[in-house]
Fold this sequence. Notes:
Layout: H1 12-74, H2 79-104, H3 113-128
Helix pairs in contact: 1-2, 1-3
Amino acid sequence: MSTHPGAGPGGGLVARLRQVLEVLLTMLQSRFELASLELREEMLRWLGVAFLAAAAFFAGQLGLLLLTLAIVALFPDYAALTLSLAGGLYLAGAGACLLFLRRQLKDRPPPFGDSVDELKKDREWLSSLN
């Protein structure tokens, strides 16, 4: 016979320890999920900032276009050359920006997703020890 309480065939101490560990892992998982949601909200805020930056970029491009047209009006003999060079420059800039944005906005897994998955696996493992 064992003299320690909870050390009997039911494994009271081990069962208690497992319960405490499962509660701790559940708490950690919820914290990671919350952090993930907060990070997503922050990313959405930055996406709004990026939209405003894109609007400023568009307005700047429109300003460049009008400046180009003003140059064409001042020097009508070089209109075709001016418009061709300016158009090529603007299209190259737009293409470069789009490539950069595409690379930045590719689908990515949710932040902390791997950590949450690992914590779920830990909980499942602990549950399987019964």
